[in-house]
Amino acid sequence: MQNPYLPYPVRIDQITVETEDKSLKTFKFVFINPDDEKRFAYKSGQFAELSVTGMGEIPIGIASSPTEKGFVKFTVFRTGKVTSYLHSMKQGEIMGIRGPLGNAFPWETLEGKNVVIIGGGFAFTTLRSSIITMLDPANRPKFKDIHVIYGARSPGMLLYKDELQAWAQRSDIHMNITVDGTDDPNWKFHKGFVPTITEKYAPPGNADTYAIVCGPPIMIKFTQPVLDNLGYSHDNIIMSLENRMKCGIGICGRCNIGKDLVCKDGPVFTLSQLNTMPKEY
Amino acid sequence: MNLIQIDAQSWAKGIEKLKAVYRTFGPKKEKNDLEFKELQAGELPELHFQNTRMSPKALVYPQTQAMFTYSLDESREDCRILKEVKRDEKPQAAIGIRPCDALAFKLVQRNFDSREYQDVYWINAYEATTLVGLACDHPCSTCFCTSAGTGPFGEEGLDVLLIQQNDTLYAKAITQKGESLIQAAGWKSAAAKDAAGNMDALKTKAESEISAFVETDKLKQKKIMEIYEAPFWEAETFSCINCGTCTFVCPTCWCFDIQDETHGKSGVRMRNWDTCMSPLFTIHASGHNPREHKYERVRQRFMHKLKYYVDKYNDGIQCVGCGRCIRSCPVNIDIRKICNKMNSFDPQSCSCEVASS
Amino acid sequence: MTAYTDKIRQIASKLLTEGKVDMVIGFRKGSIPMMNQPLFIKTPGEAQELIWDSHCALNLANYVTNRKEKIGIVAKGCDSRNLVTHIIENKITREQLHIIGVPCTGMVDRHKVSAMIEAEITAIEESGDSIKISGNGFSKELKKTEVLQENCAGCTHRNPVIYDELVGELVPEQSGVDPYASVREVESMSPEEKWNYFEDLISNCIRCYACRNACPLCYCPTCFVDESRPQWVGKSQDPTDVRTFHLLRAYHCAGRCSDCGACERACPMGIKVREFTKKLNKDCLELYGWEAGLTVDARPALDTFKADDPQDFIK
């Protein structure tokens, strides 16, 4: 019997500081045993437990895309005991990852549809994965229009800045990058909160259009009525939740919301589903 | 299945024989109460009791369990690589567990052994364990097993059922595992022809002594949010002090925490029983807590056992009616009363029948 | 006892009718023998639920911590001392409280009574000093004084120290009792004997923290055992961690503990956790002449300094 609690050993191959306040770093991991990479076959929207030996584990969304080979990437916000330690680790050090865990964004449903990605702050990691996946030449024809609305407090707080720039140049994806405010005279994207930008630039809702929304609670709270006004049905609004987790595989019992476990039945739920569940997240 | 008759002498002999093959556990006097402990040479399990203070779940799922070991010594090749802890594979036998506690293993099996993930620690220990039940001839006033899926002579989850009549024990093998244990103990005298009838009479008598019940028939048909938002939670949970006693003594509570503990340069990744009564259980690293208030945590415990589990597995409640949480709760929160309130709650009239317990 | 019950109901009903308080906190009859349940009532009609007998041993001060309402609270001697400590420590204000004082003759030790009989006790009745327990096929009469909680047997503050009204005449305080006999026994042990004594005492602790949570003194937003940065204590059944919890818990109660016994009563494993706190109570009394919770007008022993405080411990 395979032990589902045993992480795959990985080496930290590269660490990128993402934001000006240095609170977010992207860790690129390489599997020590090459076969583990095959076992770690994932889809965009899933997460993994990062295991820092001696400190513990943390559930983090997978920021890389299955179309990217040879490594996996996670962008980690420094907040608790494990993430603080992880931020002090160096390239070349050994740790573990366990997964992939949870469901993913509903890719089968999304095929042939318009996809609107709405993200805020550091909840853009699995959204980055999704964009990379959809823009892969083998996948792009499977989707209709792709819209992205992504906002952060300031230009320096945006994740994946180089990629955002590159996507903004492309014609097969509609990028709407925004910041709450900036003094930068060269800032060439939007200014304003995500809900406002969504109202202006998101396509109207219909049966063929799905919105994937990830962000801080306040953003979600104000974006939802905007999507309602735009005509999005709650079945077409897809969200990803975070709750405190330990095992990540639906056994330890702490991340439940009603009868569903965020780690195993989620983290991705439609708004219709969430409407029938306790607001314990 | 044939009934085997065991007199006092062959009982003692058989238990000694079992100790050679199994790690043998049974109820033992422990500081004014009974607990399941390993029986040493010459020791017999206590057979005259109502139930043990703690449930026997720890035999399969210890309160603290090492999962992996590791080294943080940079000079070692395996620095920071987790290594599995060698598990004791010797079979174990639990002698004298109550039918309610045996059923509990079946209920929690759904959690530890699901289609998608198998908890190797629990499964290995469970498979290595033979459960020898002891029928209850005098149930407690707080026992409500007959309305929680089993009964004082319930067989589900057991490998052997022992029935006591005066100084004689009767053993009934329920599974192959149970047959093997009976064989290993050398118990083979077939019971007299009328014994089976006598056992049925004892069973009927014991069942008639059960005086506490819960009503669960309407739990399934109600919507989660209806019960969740019922107005009685705050008042019913006021006395709770959020200790985890109910969850620790419960045979069906399975939640755990995972912790790394390092001493010097080596350490253990372990799991420990955890409790949904604690605010720490759900608090996010940001400080946000989805179950910030006491009543939300108590509600979670009851909703989990009596509604979420019911909906998820469609096979009864996550409770076997052992009554330990009622007897051990320092502030007299009574699951019978809460269950009946949940079951009878009518969101239309916004009230529930005054439930008797 | 029924007289107390009647009076409590009458006072509670009046307070709620007149709108003097938002809620009354007291006890209702429990669902099993020797267990009553703390409850709050908000309407005069609910006053009939309130009761008083010798099983109201939990400390109700535990239920007013940081509350914002005006509260009527039923309080025996020890509860009232913890209300005093709560007031001193700003966990509630005196103005928020209407204290319904209960002169107390002690609470029955449920662990002790259960241990006296092999069979299950299914009913218990009391009248005066007599307690009658019964169950399947047996019935037995006990004297209440023989089955009191240990802290009640040695109690010298049975009457509430602050109250707004009383439910009965004050009772005579006990004299000639020795609350610290068992502490002296431990003090006379060799270090090794002490070690073994305490090891055995906590050997079956399951770390549910019922002792901590039943205690009105334990209201820290994050208890030291729950702190993760830094993590002071491990979470397993490691004896060092179990020991650390019990010792530190006791020290945190030094000079604040009223010896109400709620911790011991709450313990599902029957651990005599007061063996730790009692020693500190004795030291506070002998070194500083201090007993917790007797007055709102003095600061507790451990947050004051006097020039003549004993300093022998400084080597």
What characteristic shape of chain A results from the CA principal axes? Answer: globular
Average pLDDT of chain A:
95
Q: Report the sheet-strand fraction of chain A.
A: 25-35%
Return the structural class of chain C: alpha/beta
Widest sheet, order of strands of chain C: 2-1-3-4-8
**What is the CA-atom radius of gyration of chain A, in angstroms?**
18 Å
Structural class of chain A: alpha/beta
Question: What's the gist of this structure?
Answer:
The complex is a heterotrimer of chains A (281), B (357) and C (315). Chain B has 357 residues and is α/β, with parallel strands linked by helices.
Explain what the structure shows:
The complex is a heterotrimer of chains A (281), B (357) and C (315). Chain A has helices at residues 34-39, 81-87, 107-110, 125-135, 161-169, 194-201, 217-229, 271-275; strands spanning 8-17, 24-31, 47-52, 56-61, 72-77, 94-101, 114-120, 146-152, 174-179, 190-191, 209-214, 237-240, 256-257, 260-261, 268-270. Chain A has 281 residues and is α/β, with parallel strands linked by helices. Chain A folds into 2 domains: 8-100, Elongation Factor Tu (Ef-tu), domain 3 (Beta Barrel), CATH 2.40.30; 107-240, Rossmann fold. Chain B has 2 domains: 3-63 and 85-209, no CATH class; 224-344, no CATH class. Chain B has 357 residues and is α/β, with parallel strands linked by helices. The longest helix of chain B is centred in the last third of the chain and has 20 residues, at 294-313. Chain B starts with a strand and ends in a 13-residue tail after the last helix. In chain B, β2 (23-30) and β3 form a beta hairpin. Chain B is globular. By secondary structure, chain C is an alpha/beta fold. Chain C folds into 2 domains: 2-109 and 148-303, no CATH class; 112-147, no CATH class. Chain C has helices at residues 2-17, 77-88, 110-116, 150-153, 181-187, 191-201, 210-213, 239-252, 262-266, 274-288; strands spanning 23-29, 36-41, 71-75, 97-101, 121-127, 130-135, 138-143, 165-166. Chains in contact: A-B, A-C, B-C. At the A-B interface, β6 and β13 of A face β4, α3, α6, β10 and β11 of B.
